[in-house]
Amino acid sequence: MKVSGIFFLLLLHRSCSALNIVAPRTHNALIGSSTLVPCSFTVDSPPINPQFLAILWLYGEKELVRYDNKEKSALPGVSIDEGVASQGNASLTIHNVTIVDQGTYKCVIIYSPNRKVKEIQLNSQAPPKVKLLEKVLLKNRDNHLLCLITSFYPKDITVTWLRNGLTLDGFELGTLQMDTDGTYMINSSITIFSKHNQDHAIISCQVDHVTLPEPIQDAFTVQYGEEPKITMFSSHVGQNELFVCQVNDFYPEAVQITWLMDGKRMEPPRKNASSTFNKWDHFLIPGNHKRNMNVSCVVEHETLESPLIKTLTVADEKNSLNLILAFIATIFVSVLITLISLHFFVYKTKYFQRFQLSPIHILGGWNGETDQKMTMCCTASNCSKEIQVTWIVEEDNGVKLKVTDHQSDEEAGKLLNGGYTVRTNQSERDGLYNAVTVLTFTPNASKHCNMKATCSVLSGRRTKEKTYKWSFNVSRPRLSAPIKFSVDSFGDIVCSVALEKFYPKNIQTIWSCGAGNYQELDNIKSKTFLNHSENTFICQSECQVPQHLFRNPGFRVRVMWTHPSLVQPDSQEVSAKDLPWSPVVGEIIVPSLVHGTEARLQCEVRGYYPNNLQVRWLRTESGKSELYEVCPSDKYKVPEMETTQEPDKTYTSTSSLIVSVSAITEQGAEFICQVTHPSLERPLDKRTGVLTVKGKPAVQNIFQDGKYIVLEVDSFYTQNPLVTWGKADKEFGPYKRIEEKSIQSNTTKSSDGSSCLTSKCDTVKATHMVKLVDTYFKATVEHGALKTPEEIFFVRSKGKVYLLSEKEKKELENITTNY
Question: Which among 108, 104, 99, 110 has a CA at the least distance from the CA of 39?
Fold first, then answer.
């Protein structure tokens, strides 16, 4: 932008004061940060007088900042410190530097009458990030290692592989790729044959870049991995089928297990003495399935080039037996066999055995529901006398209760709140007694967190006891709300979730993300604490995800949690469409459209995150509904979108469309600003509405036609201009308005769609035609395309009409301004 002639008052300062300006030739700035482009100046006669000072910053020829005693303005994203500008510091601050900010900046200092300019070349830069994906080797085989280098700019980079600080040869560089934010990424790979003498060797991927004071690297100490072995089996649980997948003897610890049913995805380690790990997972299929199905366990591990898969086929089942009934039936069969054995030994061999008491068994599965009954069972056999059974329950809160099945009504009433019942069935054969006794109760969090149940059996003078310790799994974790989002100070998106009302405390949350292939995240923060009012636990878990990953519409984040109360892990997923920062599109600002001029249409989009906004301009023709994309051309210009980051981390962008206005193409047309963002299900459209084009009237001719004075006005659109006439007998007025009845107007159409107006004034008397006295006239043209009315001054002298000269017109305007 030209700056000469815009500071008229500054040029009135005539005192000569030398001006010196200091600024570097180049300046480097990190992408995503704020940078201060230095520029300072001095005068030889301080202090600096702000009245004669003007500061401008230009990017190429585009004005960024203006500072003088009349105006202080700056485009979004840039600023100067006005508090120190008058002290000689004109440095420019660029907020949230991007790649497009690099280029030539001009620091212009005017201290009237002196003017000086310094050019500074700004270089946008971004340091690389380095990550080794594989950090484990397999013995006596080739190992393929991969190093990812991301988020760097400019693109020149040096990669070196090292073993114990010595350079390795034979590595390869992948294809350089550009990320959506304009930075670059590349990968490097190397194949290493592992040997035993490489124990504890350090393998490094080292990267050097212009932004780094010294090279950076990611490294690991060689450790040998073991490939996992997989075992899979199934078992009936009531009417359901339980599948168990056991993975053994693998190292390192991280492993991922996935379940497939007929090929479709359905969705805690222990260390061995051999320093490898085992892990098991399970999958429960509800009963009453009516067809054969294949259930697969898929295991992924760092030592595997491809996943391990084990598959079992589930046959069609029509009548599954209940597990509790089957268990009790087994007990009775065992009792029957015991009776037969006793008969043989007591009566055939005359040998008497002491009675036996089995361990306590849990009947049925426990799924953590608060209203589910818990049933414990114990059997006694080979008793010489009738049996008396007492269950002793020690609750977690210190209460100790004794429960029998022959208590008095008063005793039963005392235990009613405890909710315990005992049922014992005895049988006698060949003089020996057998019994099955069952304790039933409803678990409670405050009483059964770590309870102990003892079955005490008295037969004659002999007593036997069995004790069972049970940890209470009271309830499943529940989501208090869907996954929440926030933005941290580094611009990463923080995903957080709260799980509540679960017991016991041991819960594990696993975050992963990806587009089809999920990768487990390691930057996880979780904390679990007790809700004292309910005696249950609450877990809060969060992870950080780089914002650029959400630019992929298929990218998803998953949180999965495991807990003893769950048969299989539960999970929740979110994508960019769940983000709370969707763009809000403002109204399109449409200036007055004047034929033959340029007009800038602007549309502001606010409140979106991440910074992956796409804007297209579309148009419709007059009277038609078809949409056409506006492509840059001589008629349409689409400047680069201006984007700034707000204090709340969201982005605001302004998109512009510059149109060379023509009444033929723009009259009745409509422009549409279409916005696309990963958080949107479908694009957002904002319309201008039907456009109206104005034509700026132009006075083409003034002449005399007999007693008429004729004024011709053409090149206007949409409305006729208003022409008024005034007359004065003196050179400088005052002008008296001529009545409408003395004026004739006629409008005609031109080939380009514009109109022409002829206005004739017949107020000249015949005596004026022959008099030698001059008569002065003024014609005023008003139209919507004119910022101010246009006035034409002329004089009739000696019977002829003459336009006043520019000098005479200026003097006349000055005199008649207040009229």
Answer: 108
